[in-house]
Predict the 3D structure of the following.
Amino acid sequence: MKKLPDTETNHKVSRARKRVEEIKGFYQHLLAYCLFTPFTIFINYKTYWDYKWFWYSVISWGIAVAIHGFIVFVHKGKFGRKWEERKIQEFMRKEENKWN
C-alpha cells in the first residue's frame, strides 16, 4: 500500500467526514419523519377524524425523505465523486495512450 502525502490524506479524510455527515443527516431526517407521522395521525384522530388531513403532511414529507435518500445514496453514490474520479482516470489513460 502506498503512502499518501499529507495533503491528499487530509483531503480524503475531509471528504469521508462530509459523506458521513450527509448519511447522518438523512437518517436524522428519516427519524424525524417516523416520529412525526404517528403524532400527526394522533392529532388528526383527536381533532376531526372524518377528514384525514394527515395524509398531506405524511405524503409530502415522505416524498422529501425519498428525494433526500436518492441524493445521498444513489446520486452521490453512483454518479458522485467516485464516478467523477473514475471518469477522469479513464480520460487520462486515453490521452496517455494517444501519445504513445
Notes: The chain is about 85% helix and 0% strand.
